[in-house]
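Practice problem 4.
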């Protein structure tokens, strides 16, 4: 059975760079765009061109970077002629182009932010998407706050956008209030609504305010979405967006998804891309961050190390070398004798007999108890401690 392809839309350079203290200069945006291309993303949202001269020039530079080949270059736009014109002026240099334009659709936003009636919103959608059709690009319509929008009106908004020329529809969980079941139901009902239409794509865009952005995205995939939006490291406003590396990890390793879906991401490029984005966007990667955290494949607990030495699958869900990571055993306060023996073998240190080994183990444990806030005893330290103990 052939797998269904999931298209990866990266918005690190637009939604991600809106996070406070994580802004990017033009040359930094270009660097990340090159990394995203090497990573294999299908669409790069390069920025919001009309928001500033820097944004416009960044989008334009990235579009020129991919003038002959590479991913789709996308610009963000509101439903205004001025935004659309500016977006075209910046992305037109790319070989493959997209505009990502839309409007909020929830009663909360209509009544307390836009101060528009539903009829006025539908008229804006119709008028501005028809205008955007003047240009040679793919049109993606987003419904901001879609997850809090009455489904009947969301269908009207999407139907209007479809009739006006859009073929890609984004369902935004803008404030991250959905859970996977509810978000999946929205996607499934919209998928059924469009079932007889050709060349339709539903796209996810989930925020992480309740810690469910990746789970909601995966639910969207299971329910019929064929494109997902996210950012490297999950960076974004407030609690951030869906983490692209975690989405890909699930598509690769989670039994529910790996045999059903495919993607174009080069898994061995993920770790370095994350490190580069961390450096350029001033983001600290949590120690326990899935896949890319410093402790992602590190084990100190003695029982777990013993089990891992016997068979790595005992405590690893997947092989880290597929992502250029390695399993690591930490010799620390919670380590057992199996860890010490492993480290002795690794450093080619010898101990003559069992009593000496046991006494050295007690000595190492006392040292480790004083290093609870450190990353255990390194191999170099172990060599020095061995010399000191047995001199």
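Answer key:
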């Amino acid at each position: 059975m052939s797998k269904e392809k999931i298209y990866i839309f990266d918005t690190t350079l637009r939604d991600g760079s809106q996070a406070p203290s994580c802004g990017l200069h033009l040359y930094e945006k270009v660097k990340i765009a090159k990394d995203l291309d090497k990573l294999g993303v299908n669409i790069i949202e390069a920025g919001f061109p009309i928001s500033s001269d820097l944004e416009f020039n960044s989008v334009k530079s990235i579009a020129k970077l991919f003038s002959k080949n590479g991913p789709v270059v996308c610009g963000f736009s509101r439903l205004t002629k001025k935004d659309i014109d500016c977006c075209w002026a910046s992305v037109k240099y790319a070989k493959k182009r997209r505009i990502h334009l839309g409007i909020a659709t929830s009663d909360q936003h209509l009544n307390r932010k836009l101060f528009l009636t539903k009829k006025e919103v539908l008229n804006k959608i119709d008028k501005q998407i028809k205008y955007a059709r003047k240009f040679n690009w793919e049109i993606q319509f987003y419904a901001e706050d879609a997850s809090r929008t009455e489904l009947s009106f969301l269908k009207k908004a999407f139907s209007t956008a479809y009739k006006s020329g859009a073929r890609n529809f984004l369902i935004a969980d803008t404030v991250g209030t959905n859970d996977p079941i509810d978000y999946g139901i929205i996607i499934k009902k919209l998928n059924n609504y469009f079932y007889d239409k050709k060349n339709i794509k539903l796209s996810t865009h989930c925020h992480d305010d309740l810690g469910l952005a990746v789970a909601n995205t995966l639910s969207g995939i299971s329910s019929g979405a064929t494109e997902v939006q996210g950012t490297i490291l999950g960076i974004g406003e407030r609690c951030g967006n869906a983490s692209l590396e975690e989405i890909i990890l699930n598509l690769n390793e989670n039994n529910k998804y790996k045999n059903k879906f495919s993607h174009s991401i080069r898994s061995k490029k993920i770790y370095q891309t994350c490190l580069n984005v961390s450096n350029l966007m001033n983001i600290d990667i949590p120690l326990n961050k899935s896949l890319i955290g410093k402790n992602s494949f590190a084990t100190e607990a003695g029982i777990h190390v013993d089990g891992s030495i016997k068979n790595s699958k005992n405590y690893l869900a997947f092989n880290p070398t597929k992502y250029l990571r390695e399993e690591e055993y930490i010799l620390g306060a919670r380590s057992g004798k199996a860890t010490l023996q492993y480290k002795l073998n690794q450093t080619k240190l010898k101990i003559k007999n069992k009593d000496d080994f046991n006494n050295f183990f007690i000595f190492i444990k006392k040292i480790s108890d004083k290093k609870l806030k450190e990353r255990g005893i390194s191999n170099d330290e172990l060599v020095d401690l061995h010399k000191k103990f047995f001199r």
